[in-house]
Design goal:
The protein is α+β, with helices and mostly antiparallel strands. It is about 40% helix and about 5% strand. The protein has twelve helices and five strands. It has helices at about 5-30, 55-60, 70-80, 100-110, 125-140, 150-160, 160-165, 175-190, 200-210, 235-240, 250-255, 325-330, and strands at about 270-275, 285-295, 295-300, 310, 315-320.
């Protein structure tokens, strides 16, 4: 059997099943289990590959430095600040993986690895310093009413005095957005302890992708008219969720952080599924598709191919994300 004939047979079989899958989508979501939404106290596990392997042990250790933080929250801060880039430098002269400005580093930087120096460019110092700084801020506002973690994040953004003055998170739009962003983003770095809430937009996102079956692949394609309506993998997933009002980042490795991560056995139609040659680092993800059930996804696989059904269970399967509107909104526009 030729490759083309094999593809036609597979397409027919999966296509016949898809309408049945779509009929089941609503029912599947109605009976799916709930996730405990809070990050919670104690030791929080990190989702598979969400933190690059080089920093995972540091984040897990120092994320438990005090009760106001946890590893997922610390990971969310590092991702939001630098995308785990130890060489990041901002226009405001913030430096390193934790984006300390020189004045703050001078007073709050610690020698995390005990080698006799405090180097803002060394994650072995910068990550412990970020955790230590968080915990110091938490101690400053420990008597303020409200959630200690939210008050700590508010102090990070607006200063401890503002938190004390207002008796909790101050009524500043920027500060409240920052607190919500980090606490939401932390959910995508935490390993779920129960089943993950289903996405309400998932069925419509699948419908959008289904209508694009057979469309030729285009590297960098966003489906615009000047591109002939063509897509690459992350362009397709972005457009599918954009059709239901959820704006995802443009590239696959950032889309991975748009919500919590169900296990392979818990996949539901509409989940984004990711593929990588490095199972320890979500920043190395190179491909994404939309799960439709039955072990298949819709994806835009590569140059020379068309948008089609492909199996999920391949050696390079990395993991999945159940996209949430809040999760997508929490992602930084650039990392």
């Amino acid at each position: 059997m030729t490759v083309r004939k094999a593809w036609i047979v597979a397409t027919a079989a999966v296509g016949a099943a898809l309408s049945f899958v779509m009929l089941l989508v609503v029912g599947v979501y109605m009976v799916a289990g709930n996730l405990a939404n809070g990050i919670g106290g104690g030791s929080v596990g990190l989702a598979k590959g969400s933190v690059p392997a080089a920093y995972k042990t540091l984040v897990q250790k120092w994320g438990n430095l005090c009760g106001a933080i946890n590893p997922a929250l610390l990971a969310a801060q590092l991702y939001q600040e630098s995308g785990f880039n130890p060489n990041a430098r901002s226009p405001a002269k913030a430096e390193g993986i934790a984006q300390f400005i020189p004045g703050t580093w001078a007073t709050h930087g610690v020698d995390g690895d005990g080698d006799g120096d405090r180097d803002v460019w060394d994650p072995n110092d910068a990550i412990p310093s970020a955790a230590s700084y968080d915990c110091q801020l938490a101690s400053y506002v420990k008597d303020a009413p409200g959630n200690v973690t939210e008050n700590m994040l508010a102090a990070y953004n607006a200063g401890a005095y503002a938190v004390i003055k207002y008796g909790g998170v101050p009524p500043y739009k920027e500060t409240r957005n920052y607190v919500k962003t980090i606490t939401t983003l932390a959910k995508s770095f935490a390993a779920p302890v129960t089943r993950v809430d289903p996405s309400r937009q998932a069925a419509a996102a699948i419908t959008y992708a289904q209508k694009k079956l057979g469309t030729p692949y285009l590297w960098g394609g966003n489906g615009t008219s000047d591109q002939g309506g063509r897509f690459d993998c992350s362009g397709l997933t972005k457009a599918a969720y954009e059709s239901v009002g959820v704006t995802l980042p443009r590239v696959a490795n950032d889309q991975y952080n748009a919500g919590p991560h169900p296990r392979r056995s818990e996949l539901l139609p509409g989940d984004l599924v990711f593929f990588s040659d490095d199972s320890t680092d979500s920043r190395a993800i190179r491909h994404v598709g939309i799960y439709v059930g039955g072990g298949y996804m819709i994806d835009a696989p590569r140059p020379g191919a068309v948008i089609r059904f492909d199996p999920v269970d391949t050696p390079d399967y990395f993991g999945a994300t159940r996209v949430t509107e809040d999760g997508a909104k929490a992602l930084p526009t650039t990392v």
